[in-house]
Amino acid sequence: MSLLVCPRASLHRRLAFFFSRTLAIGPRQAGSASAEKKPSTAKSATSPSLEDLKPPISSCPAGTVLSGLNYLKGQPPVLAMPDADYPGWLWDLTNPKKRSVVEDVEPGSDAEKRRLRRENRQLLRDKNKFGAR
Q: Keywords of this protein's UniProt record, alphabetized (predicted)?
């Protein structure tokens, strides 16, 4: 079973595998055009700031018709709003949840029992899902 599809492989191991493969490619060839350029030490007045280089938060620009959201007849189409009109918590939904530190949990406590029960359930689900068919 591949490391990337193995349900028991931790996220850390998968990311380490990905980045090790990415870095194994190595630097660009010496003859390429980008390698011949020398970085300038002085900041250019026309260079964009870091804020300008950030990608937009939403995946569609304001005013885009969002198809599939308007299910009532006779209503105007649903349009995307500017990013500033949406609440701030909306953009945090895609971030992974922060887990409590395992070292802070005392052995035999209720929190540890819940964590072990949750992990064992997930192992059983994975075993049933990926087991022999």
A: Mitochondrion, Ribonucleoprotein, Ribosomal protein, Transit peptide
Nearest in space to 79 (alpha carbons), one of 95, 58, 93, 56:
58
| Domain enclosing residue 89, as ranges | 62-94
**Per-residue model confidence (pLDDT) at position 78:** 93
What is the amino acid identity at position 127? K
Nearest to 19 by CA among 29, 7, 4, 32: 4
118 or 132, greater pLDDT: 118
On whether residue 20 sits in a domain, the answer given is no
Closest CA to 86 of 58, 66, 61: 58
- Is there a contact between 61 and 81 (Cβ–Cβ < 8 Å)? no
Query: What one-letter code names the amino acid at 77?
Result: P
Residue spans of alpha helices (H) in the chain: 11-23, 33-36, 50-53, 110-130
Number of structural domains the chain divides into: 1
Residue 68 inside a domain? The answer is: yes
